Amino acid sequence: MPTIRRIFPLIALCISLLSCSRASANTFTNPIAAGADPWVVRHNGYYYWCLSQNGSGVAICKSDTLTSLGKRHVVWHAPGTGPYSKEIWAPELHFLDGRWYIYVAADDGDNANHRMITLESATDDPLSAYTFKAELYTGDNIAKKTKNRWAIDGTILTHRDKRYFIWSGWRSGGDDQSLYVAPMSDPWTVSGNRVRICKNDTYLWEYVGESPRNNGLNEGPQVLQHGGRTFLIYSASGSWQPSYKLGLLELIGDDPLKPGAWRKHPKPVFSPTDKTFGVGHGSFTTSPDGTQFWHVYHAKRERANGWSRAIFAQPFTWTADGLPDFGIPVAPGQPV
């Protein structure tokens, strides 16, 4: 009997440790990687992450999980000189018309010259080689294509079998960022003048530093479609500040090119906390089995102004009235 009494507690301890091990294996903690402006797309059972390669190229990582990026493949190196040689920002990967296209901002080393370009894959493999295809026109004179405008954070909207380009741009020569939309005739050609979707300073939380002494700032637009509705999730305030957050626009009209067709939600839909701050410019995907929606975004590593950031991932749900419910940013080190 004494031996049996000693064995039972040992068995119980082993069962407890095994349960803890299984629970731990089914969770992870954020951040999952260093980086910013994460873009991820699920294709043929894998996640493909598209990231800037130290501001001098574009890399794609292939992984079977959302909790790690996998091996990094540099698919495009910026040229040594020229208008697309520096400050390669926020690339996105889209499969359109049988090819993969990367939309990315680039300049010559002067931020005022940032333009959106597209790269085209050699095959239908996301990891195939990419070559420069075109600079997208983001100005106000499509007939002559003169005075192309500053543009970053370009993305694609498909609505009623028509394709549109959406990005963050300057209204004129000054640093005053708003969201714009224009029609496309093919994956590398904008076919109409840009239209400003909305004011960038409707609410105080959209201002840089949340101060009326500064400009409003809208950037990082991301299309989220669900239940027959189209949402545009965007980043507001300064990306270098802890006040960075996400806002929401909904397409309520038939034509995305009409500003009145977009309705802005009055409150942020994803706000910083005292532990996780500077949250924004993310993308959306699903779990491997398709049963969960996931939000991948970046957060600042410190509260001081600056661009040291890391990548976070967490699930989100939908409210009873059909809006995305992103919850609150998960704290670093907290199991998910």
UniProtKB/TrEMBL annotation:
SUPFAM superfamilies, sorted: Arabinanase/levansucrase/invertase
Keywords: Glycosidase, Hydrolase, Signal
Site features described as Important for catalytic activity, responsible for pKa modulation of the active site Glu and correct orientation of both the proton donor and substrate, chain residue numbers: D153
GO molecular function, one term: hydrolase activity, hydrolyzing O-glycosyl compounds
Any single GO BP term: carbohydrate metabolic process
Domain of life: Bacteria
Endpoints of the signal sequence: 1-25
Record-annotated active site: D37 (proton acceptor), E219 (proton donor)
Family the entry assigns: Belongs to the glycosyl hydrolase 43 family.
Protein name: Glycosyl hydrolase family 43
